[in-house]
Structure formats: structure tokens, C-alpha cells
Amino acid sequence: MKSKTDIRTLSEKELNARLVRDLTEVCPAGEREALAAWRAADPAHEEEYARIRSYWNARVTTTRSIDPEREFRKLQRRIAAGSESRRSGMLRLLATRMGRYASMAAMLAVGLFCGWALSGPRAAERFAFITGSSISSFELPDGSRITLDKESRLEYDGDFGRDERNVRLVGKGFFEVEKMPDKRFVVEMGDVQVSVLGTTFDASNRTEEGIVSASLVEGSVAFRAGNQNLRLTPSRRAVYHVGSGEITVSEFDPEITTAWKDNLFRYKSLTLEELLEQLSARYDVRIITDAGDVGRTRFSGALETRLSVEQALDIVSRQTGMEWSKLDNVYFVTKR
């Protein structure tokens, strides 16, 4: 399959440079088409490209200055450790030359790096994935898939998987844990530990909210806070209230709770007032409504999280037959 330039005719140097331009989003349209053709030519190409991009998209901090070329070699080994499948030509070419571009990644804060924390006579290697204003997905060395919400951080040490698979979460993450009966997967969130062998769950640890939670989608997890222990079954959510030390358990709707990982705000069977209350909290604005008869109708739908409050109100107004206006930073939703 060919576009303006057949990617198979490029030299290694040209091919690697083109991939870097694509990853850093400065790739011209013609080059992007050629890469798309290469990815479509073989499912293994697409799989490898997605794996490389998932690592590339995660921001990682370090505890001291590092050698970008050396750290790229570490990235190569970690990608290789995550899969024993056939390696594509793109990864082989990338591994030979990409080190020179790693400093560009550091400057743009989109590369994978690691740091060291000195403790006693030996150095402990640590890795930290940090998201900014966007959601990012990546794969851990054991094959577990993690999706991090905006403004979140996940850390793990260099001995990850040696005895146990321990990670530390600040913020929010969605975990698809690779099953390993002999090695627990433990998420540490302050005073709370969530332990699993292989399962799918959502976890949240945001200091400003005053709660730490785990919402189980599939499998089974052990939720521990202090001397309190409980086991969750699917569609059950445990919430640890930091102030009181209390744990509450309730049911949840997985489609709604985990919609954030797809950049969606999903709602089901809400009255207009309930929906506007959630939008008010989400956008931190004041919304007032006089719903009238519409107030007894229930609505379901989904909104992209990237939308502004005005764009969200446009969609909700069309769905409910209402209209909105703004006065002195207050939004009013009324009948047409």
C-alpha cells in the first residue's frame, strides 16, 4: 500500500525521524498518511505503534538529571518485557536511532524516564507516570493496562514484579490487571491498599475530595484501610472517608463511573435538576433552572469532557427542549 512516499523505501534515519515527528505532533499530512498506511498493512505494526505511543504520552519526573539516551534504552527493555510477541520492523528501527531524539522528548515532557532515590548504600530505581491536562494510557512491565485521569500520578519501583506488583496512586486510575496467581497486584493510596491477583477496577485518591475509593468492574479485590478489611464483588464500590476513618460500601453503574477514561461524562435516568446539579459541580459554576413539567422527565446521555459549560448547556437544552442564558456569571435554564 502506497501513499505519496512508500514508507518501505525510507532509510532507517528518515523513518525514525518521521516517527518522532508523528509522536511530537509536528508531522506533515503526507508523512502522516504514509505512517497510517504502514500501520494498516499489518496488525502487528498497529499494535507496536500503539504500545510505543502509550509510553511516549506519559509524563514522568525524575529525582535528578539523567542521560536521555540511556533512559530510552531502558524504555526499549520495558516495552520488550511487556510482550513476547513478534517485534515489528518499526520498533527495531526505532531502538537503533531514537536515543538521539530523547532529549527532544524531555523538553516536551512527553517521554518515559526514570529516577533514583538514594536510600543507604544502594540506589532504588523508581518510575513515575504523570498526566497533565489529558488522560493517558500505558502498559506496565507485567502487561497490566493502566489509564490515568487528568492531573494524576502513578509510581512503581524498579523491583516491580519481583515478589509483588506494587504501585502508588495519587489521583484517579482505571486498572486492567494481568492475572498472576503467585504475585499480588497492590495499589497503595495513602492509608488504603487495594490488593488483587487479576481484575478490572477503578480507583481514586484525591486529597481535596477527602475520600479514597475503589470501584470493582470484574473479578475480586481486597480493600484495606488501617485494621479494616473487606472484599468487593463486581459493581460494588468501597469509599474510605479520610476524616472519620469510616468505610462505606454501595452499588455503582460501571458505565457511568468509568466513562471518564473515554473522555465522557455519562448520565442515566436523571431529572433536569439532577443533571444540572452535576454539571454545576463539574464546571464549578452556578446553574439555576425553573424546570416546570420538564422537571419530572428523566434523561440519559453522554457529553464529551472537553466541552465548555456553554457547549454542554447547548446539548442539554436541545435534549430537554429548554434554553439557557447567562447573567453575572450565573447560568439560567428556562422554558423556550
Give unreliable regions as ranges: 59-69, 83-122
Order of helices and strands: HHHHHHEEEEEEEEEEEEEEHEHEEHEE
What is the highest CATH level, the class of the largest domain? Mainly Beta
Helix proportion range: 25-40%
Per DSSP, the total helix count is 9
Oligomer: single chain
> Judging from the principal axes of the Cα atoms, what is the shape?
flat
Kindly state the mean pLDDT as a whole number? 78
> Roughly what fraction of the amino acids lie in strands?
25-35%
The tally of strands reads 19
Tally of distinct domains: 3
Q: Distance N terminus to C terminus?
A: 54 Å
Tell me the CATH architecture of the largest domain.
Answer: Sandwich
Biggest sheet features: 14 strands, mixed
CATH third-tier fold name of the largest domain: Jelly Rolls
Radius of gyration: 23 Å
Helix/strand/pairing category: alpha+beta
Domain Secretin/TonB short N-terminal: 285-336
Transmembrane segments: 101-119
GO cellular component, one term: outer membrane
InterPro entries: FecR (IPR006860), FecR_C (IPR032508), FecR_N (IPR032623), Ferrdict_sens_TM (IPR012373), Secretin/TonB_short_N (IPR011662)
